[in-house]
Amino acid sequence: MYCGSRLISGGDTLYQVRSVCGEPDDAQHRIETRTVRRRVRVPCERHQRRSGQCEATVEHSTDVVIDDWTYDFGRQRFIRYLTFLDGRLASVQTGGYGSRDDR
Q1: Distance CA 71, CA 94 (A)
Q2: CB of 20 within 8 A of CB of 37?
């Protein structure tokens, strides 16, 4: 996404985006708990006569800080919706034309 003649991209921090694009027109902040499941190798139980290695599913929960910013650059440009995960730009989505007087 361009702000003026400067480009912001995935991985940029909240600070970097704010310094290039200015303050957002709207900012929402929330924390979500996410659970990740993965398969890991574990020792087999005695009754499972295998080669000594079995698999189990392990769950790990972690909190993710999510910031949603909205930029309305005016009637001649599209609204941009930015999502940050743990302070880093994760996605930019495009909305309809803005409603503000052009910046």
Answers
A1: 10
A2: no
Whether pTM exceeds 0.85: no
Domain count, the chain: 1
Give the single-character DSSP code of 25.
Answer: S
pLDDT along the chain (103 residues), means of 10: 92 97 97 93 72 83 97 92 98 92 64
Q: Is residue 66 part of a domain?
A: yes
What distance in Å separates the CA atoms of residue 18 and residue 8, rounded to the nearest whole number?
Answer: 10
Alpha-carbon torsion (15, 21, 27, 29), positive or negative: negative
37 in a domain, yes or no?
yes
